[in-house]
Design brief:
By secondary structure, the protein is α/β, with parallel strands linked by helices. The chain has one domain: Rossmann fold (3-Layer(aba) Sandwich). The protein contains ten helices and nine strands. Strands 5-4-3-6-7-9-8 form a seven-stranded mixed beta sheet, sandwiched between helices. Strand 6, helix 6 (141-151) and strand 7 (152-163) form a beta-alpha-beta unit. The longest helix has 15 residues, at 14-28. It is globular and about 45 Å long. Belongs to the class I-like SAM-binding methyltransferase superfamily. MenG/UbiE family. Its EC number is 2.1.1.163, 2.1.1.201.
């Protein structure tokens, strides 16, 4: 049987998804952070702040920020003294992050192009693994979770910030209408690319519900898993420990 995976609302081969996701992020890299502000009315900054508070990065720790792209999470964690390796499969996103790091004076970060499903790092190397708004774009999520487990030390922690489906009555319908009808138009106006943002919205709808994704994290070997919904589950912080 052919190995098909979701690309938004389409079913495509694994190879085609990887290629098309790469094209999406190459297209939006330069406007990615501007679009995040436009789409979330700046709320993504508060979500990321909360996420990093949950991670609790500490001086001397080695932390892998996967799908770290433009550096938003890495910069926040580096301020706490942790040693951060920023990895992303897309070099265009990393290039934007490197430029931003130079502008902000973050010269101690390590930047490494990596596929989340096949990391080049050794076993039991990192104290924490973070991934924010990236895991839904991975072709095989189970493989990425297995790699996260492999590269963490015993006692290491996994934290994922990702969109989900809000359970607030009324708000869900409003958000669905906004995201499907307006976000592609905003993408066209701000980034000159409606189709990439149409995919990004569709990818949220295809991502597993919070309980299902938590089960995937447990199946990868993590213990003490937890889900913290934000805005009724519009966004959620998932966590687990390697023990």
């Amino acid at each position: 049987m052919s190995d098909t995976v979701s690309f938004g609302y389409e079913e495509v081969s694994a190879e085609e998804k990887e290629h098309r996701v790469g094209a999406v992020f190459s297209s939006v890299a330069r406007k990615y952070d501007v679009m995040n502000d436009a789409m979330s009315a700046g709320m993504h900054r508060l979500w990321k702040d909360k996420f990093v508070r949950r991670v609790k990065p500490r001086e001397g720790e080695q932390i892998l920020d996967m799908a770290g792209g433009t550096g938003d999470i890495a910069f926040r964690m580096a301020e706490h003294g942790a040693s951060i390796t920023v990895s992303d499969i897309n070099q265009d996103m990393l290039d934007v992050g490197i430029e931003r790091a130079m502008e902000r004076g973050f010269d101690g970060l390590v930047w490494s192009r990596q596929n989340a499903e096949e990391l080049a790092f050794p076993d039991r190397f990192f104290d924490a693994y973070t991934i924010a708004f990236g895991i839904r774009n991975v072709t095989h999520i189970d493989k990425a979770l297995a790699e996260a487990f492999r590269v963490l030390k015993y006692g290491g922690r996994f934290f994922c910030l990702e969109f989900s489906t809000t359970e607030w009555p009324g708000f869900k319908e409003v958000y669905d209408s906004y995201s499907h009808k307006l976000v592609p138009k905003i993408g066209q106006m701000v980034a000159g690319d409606a189709e990439s943002y149409r995919y990004l919205i569709e990818s949220i709808r295809r991502f597993p519900p919070m309980p299902e994704f938590e089960a995937m994290i447990r199946n990868a070997g993590f213990k003490h898993t937890k889900v913290e919904p934000i805005m009724g589950g519009l966004v959620a912080i998932h966590s687990g420990w390697k023990v």
